[in-house]
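Hi U.,

Before I forget, here's the chain from the pilot set. I'm dumping it here mostly so it's searchable later in email.
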Amino acid sequence: MKNCLTYALGKYLREGGYLLVRQSLAARMFGVSHWSPIRLVPHFLHMTEDGVVTQYVPTEEQIERHSRNLVLFWLSLWHFDGRVVEGGCHVFNERFDCNIPVMQ
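Structure:
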């Protein structure tokens, strides 16, 4: 099983550092209302002691596929093929203006 939580938690347990939690960008991806339960979906990142933030994110193909189908999105929370990127949410996908600061 690989998702943002298993990636960040595994890295935290192996290397130490910090486990970061922020709101998922799913709410922006689906354009849901302010009261939607999708806004409760968290995204987990890892930050090293010297401030390097990494995260496990879906591939562009998965973003396209899942943005059209809410059921696929929910199922993908348990496991998805993704990639590890360095940086905060701005590196995840330029289509979503995240405006969610990563505190360092």
